[in-house]
Amino acid sequence: xxxxxxxxxxxxxxxxxxxxxxxxxxxxxxxxxxxxxxxxxxxxxxxxxxxxxxxxxxxxxxxxxxxxxxxxxxxxxxxxxxxxxxxxxxxxxxxxxxxxxxxxxxxxxxxxxxxxxxxxxxxxxxxxxxxxxxxxxxxxxxxxxxxxxxxxxxxxxxxxxxxxxxxxxxxxxxxxxxxxxxxxxxxxxxxxxxxxxxxxxxxxxxxxxxxxxxxxxxxxxxxxxxxxxxxxxxxxxxxxxxxxxxxxxxxxxxxxxxxxxxxxxxxxxxxxxxxxxxxxxxxxxxxxxxxxxxxxx
Amino acid sequence: xxxxxxxxxxxxxxxxxxxxxxxxxxxxxxxxxxxxxxxxxxxxxxxxxxxxxxxxxxxxxxxxxxxxxxxxxxxxxxxxxxxxxxxxxxxxxxxxxxxxxxxxxxxxxxxxxxxxxxxxxxxxxxxxxxxxxxxxxxxxxxxxxxxxxxxxxxxxxxxxxxxxxxxxxxxxxxxxxxxxxxxxxxxxxxxxxxxxxxxxxxxxxxxxxxxxxxxxxxxxxxxxxxxxxxxxxxxxxxxxxxxx
Lengths: 297, 244
Hints:
The structure holds two protein chains of two kinds.
Chain A: H1 5-8, H2 20-23, H3 28-51, H4 55-63, H5 65-73, H6 83-113, H7 120-135, H8 138-152, H9 162-187, H10 191-199, H11 204-234, H12 246-257, H13 261-296
Helix pairs in contact in A: 3-4, 4-13, 5-13, 6-7, 6-9, 6-12, 7-9, 8-9, 9-11, 10-11, 11-13, 12-13
Chain B: E1 4-15, E2 18-29, E3 33-37, H1 44-51, E4 59-64, E5 67-68, H2 76-82, E6 83-86, H3 98-109, H4 114-127, H5 143-155, E7 161-165, H6 173-188, E8 193-196, H7 200-206, E9 209-214, E10 217-222, H8 224-229, H9 234-243
Parallel strand pairs in B: 3-8, 3-9, 6-7, 7-8
Antiparallel strand pairs in B: 1-2, 1-4, 4-5, 9-10
Helix pairs in contact in B: 3-4, 3-5, 5-6
């Protein structure tokens, strides 16, 4: 049973140089190649905007500087709602929702992962809650809360502002998402950590508080921020209730002036709010990855 | 005998179909060091975990300080406050400094006062030569240093019994010595220990009793002299032959 010696130790001298074509994309040539491809793509987009038969109409409809400015500052005399004041409603809604979601999501995750027999009915409730609210489209939750609670005619609960109903709907849905994010984070803590903590005689609750959660929160921050970015955008859905936030203001401007530039203005400001957060999240994720690699080696 | 710390009587542990411990009986006296030897998968780790209730057993009894752990009134957290455990993979808490790792148990589980515990933790760290590293985080330490901190973390609980689960198996060979030296020192000072180990020379040195496990069966036990120079059973001889 002997192996072919030619197979084990090849006599051939391997050729180690890259092919000519792939060398075009290396080093400074790579920079040139990437600049050219960027310019070409940009050129195509601009060409389409200008060359399309409806190009001029399109540019006027969405990018008319005067309309953009008027929709942004509003005009009380003509009954034009300002996008800038609508945007404040969006900011208020997502800030309040995010704080609520953080606490409620954590409480839900904690309850779901507790071992106490007393909490069993709550564990079942929480499981049902996350299943339900992760499954129903947010738009429907907005409708159900926004039309449902007022129709209850139940004291102050039925007399809240439309934006407040929006906050309630956003909080209901996003708490379910964030609870799952927290749960995944808690489950990602290595079992050895729990064994070590329990071996020190820490109770389940102390282990959670002193050992599991502090480690889970670190892994949870990037996905949490991702959910918050979605939440910020989803405040636009509250416009369907008639709450005058940025999207609604842009829509009003469009239907009264027959010009959609306000929609672009609103989009730009949503971008201005979310892009810093997206970049920040990416940086955190990169840092976390680097740290993990350092520990693994 | 009043100085029996831990007693296992016909302990059986199953994981589903897999029987991991098949009727193990064992006694551990105060100030005694018992080493468990045997191949991986022989049940050493499981036996240790059963002794501090990280696992529950399926048959037999475990008695700790004269109290049956099978009694439903037993509080597992109280058991673990008196039984220290050190793991193969150290399991230091990466988000806490070395000092906070050592202080966590005494302060949060035993509810002892912070300043007093801090003093004691620092002197324990001084004993292993790591007092000046007290404020650093575990990832700055070598494996051997981490494992010594893990041992000290258990000692800070003033345990009546220390369980050690292959504590040198994850270490670089050059770092094994410092950890074994610490354990030898503890043994000299009368710490009661149940040690699962692959380090035969260490077992020969410190153990009062050596126990050989094979596939969940306690094959043979005896003094290191008996076990290492004159093993009675074929499988013990084979095992010692292979690890030598």
